[in-house]
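User: I'm new to structure prediction. If I give you an amino acid sequence, what do you actually give back? Let's try with this one:
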Amino acid sequence: MARPNEMGTLKLSILSAALIGGLALPAQAEELTLGASAALTTDYVFRGVSQTTQNPAVQASLDASYGIFYLGAWGSNVDFGAGPFGQDIANIEIDYYAGITPEWSGISFDIGGIYYTYPGAFDPGTEFDYFELKTAASYTFGESFTVGVSNYWSPEFFAETGNADALELSGEYAFGNKLFNVFTPSVSALVGWQWVDKGVDYTYWNAGLTLGFMENWSADVRYWDTDLGCGGLNICDSRVVGTISASF
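Assistant: Good question. You get back a string of structure tokens that encode the predicted 3D arrangement of the chain. For your 248 residues, that looks like this:
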């Protein structure tokens, strides 16, 4: 598996209908904004499954946005084990993405595409690289509690396992007061369902605490689990993951 998906009832056509029906785009002076991030995590977990065999990962991204439009790239080390001759099956993942983020009646939308790639992967007879269509919406109650739904659909999922869908429901609460006058705390949780034509359907979930500090730094401690059995590989069982990241 690869990386954060989808359900047939929440497809782009629904959001397209909303756009056609009068999605309001705020009138404002547009400017190009560039950004980057870097993170160190104890385990790269994607939809409940470790991509690094429970080992640490170094991750980074580059982004650009202009009004409601955005594009970027994200990368991480991965570890899919060894091939028949001892070679690495895959040791790097680079994802490319682009989309739009309009708003309507207080609801924030994210409509775009993600292309997952594994440069130099040993994947004879199949193809690890794949594309997903993302449709997401979120709403913030007051200034603290945000709920969201995200849908990721792929016509040909990882390793050519066919049509795939993943649906995620999420919630986050940001506390108004700083902790020890240093940290800005928030708590969040997510539950997701993954369906794959030629694979195993399963449920995954996480919950965690994030502490923001020094304006652009954050530390996150998160519990992950799934109902997926991985044949004794211990890559999809319960675990606690720690991540420290910075954005620029």
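You can read the tokens as a compact description of the fold. Here is one thing that stands out. Confidence is low (pLDDT under 50) at residues 1-27.
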